[in-house]
Amino acid sequence: MRPSLPAPVCAGPVACTLPAMAGRREVWIRVGMLLGASVVGLTITWSVLARRRGVAIGPDGVVDSMRTQRIGSIADRGKGGLAIDIELLRSTEGDVEPVVEYLTYIQSRRGVEEHLLFIRQEDIDAIAALEGQETDAFLERLQHLGVVISNN
């Protein structure tokens, strides 16, 4: 038989607090239930809002927009690109400002400020199109400038 708790002693209607009305174990059970319900509520809220914004966690753990289609598998990503020294490209003479702007945009989206930037083949094709050149001619121009560090 469980011993009964003594009746709470309250100085007034406001002075009756939770610890005065229940034992410590009951208080911790209620606190745990409130925290658990809060975590579940926040998780549901995040998933609903993320679905409305079109954001999801990709298979590689990267937050990705569901509006853009990912090309290739996880194993294929990072292949077929270039490593470009963007600082060296900025310091070269010639008409490279659109290329530098495009690469700087990629850097800002990735949140990096390193001098070496790895770009995908799709980006190389897009920059070449902006320059009005074929991809091969554009790559030869970059190699002539000495800013291509490596080919994947």
Give a verbal description of the structure.
With 152 residues, the protein is mainly alpha-helical. The chain is built from 6 helices and 5 strands, in the order H-H-E-E-E-H-H-E-H-H-E. The chain has a 3-stranded antiparallel sheet. Strands 1-2 form a two-stranded antiparallel ribbon. A hairpin with a 5-residue loop joins strand 1 (55-57) and strand 2 (63-65). Helix 5 packs across helix 6 (135-145). It starts with 17 loop residues before the first helix and ends with a strand. Mean pLDDT is 75; it is low at 72-76.
Q: Tell me the span between the first and last alpha carbons.
A: 75 Å
**Gyration radius from CA atoms, angstroms:** 30 Å
Main sheet?
3 strands, antiparallel
* Percentage beta strand: 5-15%
Please work out how many helical segments DSSP would assign: 6
- What's the overall geometry? rod-shaped
> Can you tell me the residue ranges where pLDDT is under 50 for at least 5 consecutive residues?
72-76
Percent of residues in helices: 40-55%
Give the integer mean of the pLDDT values: 75
Look at the helices and sheets and give the structural class.
Answer: mainly alpha
Order of helices and strands: HHEEEHHEHHE
Strand order of the largest sheet: 4-3-5
Say how many strands there are: 5
In terms of quaternary structure, the protein is: single chain
